[in-house]
Here is the input.
Amino acid sequence: MNHSEGYKTKQRMAILEFLKRNENAHVTAAMISDHLDQTGTHVGVATIYRHLDRLLESGEVRKYTVDGTTSACYQYARLDGQCREHFHLKCEKCGRLIHLECSHAMQTFDHLLEDHGFAVDLYRTVFYGQCRECREQEGAEEE
Here is the structure.
């Protein structure tokens, strides 16, 4: 392995470690870049995207896109299967990502499959709204 390949591997490992430490968050390439800059490892955003693409291909990372105008978000894909059969709830106020296992919600997806022939991709399904803590905090601020 030549020196540049080792450097690329170190970069990819630094990106993966950051995603692992933030596994309950949706992280953008800009957030990864800021973190790496703060730790003294400057990596260009284009290079970060190349590493993320490789991590996506290997199944180590998942990619979420909300619409065509905002940056894509990435999340470490736990290889132990814990992110397979549940839903992701994203608080738009605090940014927290909640892993929700709910049989009632699963019934909706089962219905879509059985009655409409549509299989929902749980890896890419994220519900956006406000978490209980943020709603309670807003309620307390209004009083």
In short: The chain has two domains: 1-79, 84-143. The mean pLDDT is 82. The chain has five helices and five strands.
